[in-house]
C-alpha cells in the first residue's frame, strides 16, 4: 500500500525522494540535496492517446493513494487521480495493482466534473489531491475550479464523492491575490497552532508572480492561511513557483515545488514551518520524452520497500503522467 511520507519517517524507514538528472549514466545513482535519493523515470502511467476521457490531450497533477486496508472492494491496490487542466477539466481516476504501472482508466471518468449542482458551475475543475484522512477513514479530495477557489469533497470508496465546502479562496489572502490553486494537504501536527493538517498551494497576484503559500487546520475543513508566502520564486532564482508537495527526512520537513525553469526545487521549512533553507535543484527533468525539459507536481508512494514518484511530465498543456522509481 502507499504510505504517507510522515508515516515513513516516524517508522524509521529513512526513505527520501528525488529524481535522476539527465546527466546520469544508466544504472548510476546520485544522492540529491539533504541526502534524498535519486529517482529515475520508468514509464508513463498509461497511454493518454487511448483514454476514453481526454478532452484536451493534456493531463496534470497526479496523486497516488493505496487502497489496501482502506477501501473495501477496491478496483486495484492503488488509485491514481489526475485531471486535464484546461476547460472542461474533470477529476479522473485510474487504478492498478503495482506502482510500476500500467494503470487502467476508470470507465466513468470524470468522477467530478465542472458542474455540480447546486454547489458550483465553473469553466473547469482540476488539480486533484486526495488525502487518506485517518480520523475520518475517508478519501478527501481537494481540487480547484476556478483557479481562485479550492474545494473539498469526501468519499468512502475513493470513487463516489460527496461535496463538502470551499476551503481556500483568493478572498482569504491579501488584496491583489488572483489565484489560489494546486493545493496539497497532509496530516501534520503543529502544536503551537493547534494544527493536525497543513496545506501547501500556489498563489498568483496582479503582478503575475506565482509563489508558494501555506495554511493549517485542526480538522482539514476550516483553515487559517499565512498572509505571506512560504517560498518566493525569486528566492531560488525563478519568476514562478507552483505545485508544492511535502517531504520528510532527517527529522525535519521540506517542501518540493517546480519553477518556470522546468526544474523542481527543495526547501527545508522545518516541522513548525519557521525555517527557510533553500537546498537547490531537487529534480532536473529529462530533455527528451516524456519530460521534454519540464517536470512538476510530484506525488510519492512506496511498494515493497521501493519508493516511487508520480509526476506531471512535459510542457504545460501537453503533459502526461509519468512514474519514476528510486535508484
UniProtKB/TrEMBL annotation:
| Keyword Signal attached | yes
Q: Which residues form the signal peptide?
A: 1-31
Spell out the coiled coil positions from the record: none
Q: Which UniProt keywords apply?
A: Signal
Stored InterPro entries = Glyco_hydro_beta-prop_sf (IPR023296), TAT_signal (IPR006311)
Highest rank taxon of the organism: Bacteria
By its UniProt entry, which SUPFAM superfamilies does this protein fall under? Arabinanase/levansucrase/invertase
Name of this protein: Secreted protein
* Organism (species): Umezawaea tangerina
Amino acid at each position: 500500500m502507499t504510505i504517507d511520507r510522515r508515516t515513513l519517517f516516524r517508522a524509521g524507514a529513512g526513505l527520501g525522494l528525488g529524481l535522476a538528472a539527465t546527466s546520469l549514466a544508466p544504472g548510476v545513482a546520485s544522492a540529491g540535496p539533504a541526502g534524498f535519493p535519486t529517482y529515475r523515470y520508468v514509464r508513463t502511467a498509461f497511454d493518454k492517446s487511448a483514454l476514453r476521457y481526454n478532452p484536451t490531450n493534456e493531463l496534470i497533477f497526479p496523486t497516488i493513494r493505496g487502497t489496501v486496508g482502506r477501501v473495501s472492494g477496491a478496483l486495484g491496490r492503488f488509485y491514481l487521480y489526475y485531471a486535464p487542466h484546461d476547460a472542461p477539466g474533470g477529476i479522473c481516476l485510474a487504478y492498478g495493482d503495482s506502482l510500476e504501472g500500467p494503470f487502467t482508466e476508470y470507465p466513468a471518468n470524470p468522477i467530478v466534473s465542472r458542474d455540480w449542482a447546486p454547489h458550483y458551475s465553473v469553466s473547469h475543475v482540476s488539480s486533484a489531491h486526495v488525502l487518506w484522512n485517518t480520523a475520518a477513514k475517508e478519501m478527501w479530495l481537494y481540487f480547484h475550479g476556478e483557479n481562485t477557489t479550492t474545494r473539498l469533497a469526501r468519499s468512502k470508496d475513493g470513487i463516489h464523492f460527496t461535496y463538502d465546502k470551499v476551503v481556500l479562496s483568493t478572498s482569504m489572502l491579501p488584496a491583489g491575490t488572483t489565484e489560489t490553486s494546486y493545493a496539497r494537504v497532509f496530516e501534520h501536527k503543529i502544536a503551537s497552532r493547534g494544527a493536525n493538517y497543513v496545506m501547501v498551494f500556489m498563489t498568483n497576484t496582479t503582478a503575475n508572480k506565482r509563489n508558494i503559500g501555506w495554511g493549517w487546520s485542526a480538522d482539514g475543513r476550516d483553515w487559517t492561511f499565512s498572509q505571506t508566502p512560504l517560498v518566493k520564486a525569486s528566492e531560488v532564482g525563478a519568476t514562478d513557483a507552483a505545485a508544492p508537495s511535502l517531504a520528510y527526512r532527517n527529522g525535519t520537513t521540506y517542501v518540493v515545488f517546480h519553477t518556470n525553469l522546468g526544474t523542481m526545487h527543495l526547501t527545508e521549512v522545518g516541522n513548525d514551518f519557521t525555517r527557510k533553507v533553500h537546498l537547490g535543484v531537487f529534480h532536473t527533468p529529462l530533455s527528451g520524452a516524456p519530460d521534454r525539459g519540464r517536470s512538476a507536481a510530484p506525488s510519492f508512494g512506496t511498494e515493497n520497500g521501493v519508493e516511487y514518484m508520480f509526476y506531471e511530465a512535459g510542457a504545460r498543456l501537453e503533459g502526461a503522467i509519468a512514474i519514476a522509481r528510486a535508484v
